[in-house]
Amino acid sequence: MVVNNIYDLEIDNIVLFSYDSPFLNTIKEDYLSDFNINIIDVKFKDNFNIVEESKVRILTPIDILHNLSNHDEISFVIKNLDVLVVNGGGYFNSLWSMPHRIERLAKIIAPILVANNLNKKIIFTGNSYGPFTQDAEFFGCTFSVLKNSVVGTRDNLLSPMWASKIGIDKDRIEVIPDDLFIVNEKLINKDVRKPIKFERYIVMETYLPLDFIKGNITLFKEFSQSIYQKYGLNILFLPFNLKHGGMDQAIYFESTLNNYTYYDINSIGYLPIEDAVKLIKNAELVISSRYHALVVALSVATPIVSVLRDVLGDKRYYYNKNLGMLIQALDGIDFDERDYLRLDYLETLKFVTERFEHIVNVQKNNFNHLYEKNKENLKLRRKSFLERNIKQFINIDGAI
């Protein structure tokens, strides 16, 4: 998403604040050689105990600022910026405030707080907000201190309600599409790095635990055989992350499924945007648990069945994101969300096997002239948001 935003903004001088600079350096080399990019690691003091006895402390902005070990470096850089852009995503919620993610979340928040103290304009692109549990006060403390910010939300479903819960005034909120719904033409026009030989295929993705997959491999085998025999469809597995985030599952399926191949991201380190878009566009259907698989499928008019995973014990997190995106893309079009959103992966395999033609026909009918109009309106809304809130505040030699 950050690459797509940089391409759309067309601003040469950019600082990227990061909690994972090795990955960003790879992205910089692959996509951003034409830009003047400075990557700054956000660093905390060694004795900053965010998690105590397996519980996350309730952090206030001053906790984060006092424990920012390179505060002076970040402050010096931000003084020379015109605008701080907070890239879109789904990290302002109780999942990201859990022990295994809170440090990364705090590193996202730290530059925002420094910029706020310097009275810089702060723009949040298409984010989701919530759900929040006992950590609502933590997020409330963060957003309540911001003096000059515009909050973009990528859904008009539950995020505005949850944003209100943490004290974000509705006048500061703008509903815009996800940062990856409208992909920049320069990215789309890049050559595919790893072409796929299948003529007819579905894209499949999951990061279900390997033990679960192995325990139910008979059902996956039956699915693979059935869709090939009934519909002539092969399976292209498209991992969205390394190791247990998709690649482990992809490699295991290679040893067990017929009419199957997978996109190997190990040699690259990530799934390239241009390949994901083209491979999904040429698929006849997508089955995935990833929200951004849904976003890309909707952007290129490919039917998709999205399996909602539990987060924090229920489906609010993915329900909000996925249905929120559907509502934007299919605004004014009657649709049954059960044709797009399912509750269980194994049940979804059965659903697709039995109802493939129904799913594809219904969804293709929904990709009509009104869908095209919605997509164009969302493109214009995003363009307007970036121009009004970011581009107009950048000096000729300015930076973000």
How would you explain this protein's 3D organization?
With 400 residues, the chain is of the alpha/beta class. The protein has helices at 2-9, 21-31, 61-66, 71-79, 102-117, 136-144, 159-165, 185-188, 210-215, 217-231, 247-254, 273-281, 291-299, 316-329, 345-366, 369-389; strands spanning 13-18, 36-41, 51-52, 55-56, 83-86, 89-92, 121-129, 149-153, 173-175, 201-204, 234-237, 260-262, 286-288, 304-307, 341-342. The strands form four sheets. The chain has a six-stranded parallel beta sheet with strand order 12-11-10-13-14-15, sandwiched between helices. Strands 5, 6, 7, 8 and 9 form a five-stranded parallel beta sheet that branches. Helix 6 links the parallel strand 7 and strand 8 (149-153). Helix 10 (217-231) packs parallel to helix 15 and helix 13 runs parallel beside helix 14 (316-329). The longest helix is centred in the last third of the chain and has 22 residues, at 345-366. It is globular. The two termini are 16 Å apart. The relative contact order is 0.12. The mean pLDDT is 96.
CA-atom Rg in angstroms: 21 Å
Report the count of strand segments: 15
User: In terms of per-residue confidence, which ranges show pLDDT below 50 for 5 or more consecutive residues?
Assistant: none
Query: What strand line-up does the widest sheet have?
Result: 12-11-10-13-14-15
Helix share, percent:
40-55%
User: Roughly how many Å apart are the termini?
Assistant: 16 Å
Derived structural class? alpha/beta
> Could you report the average pLDDT, rounded to the nearest whole number?
96
> Number of helical segments?
16
- Main sheet summary: 6 strands, parallel
Q: What overall geometry do the principal axes of the alpha carbons give?
A: globular
Strand-residue fraction?
15-25%
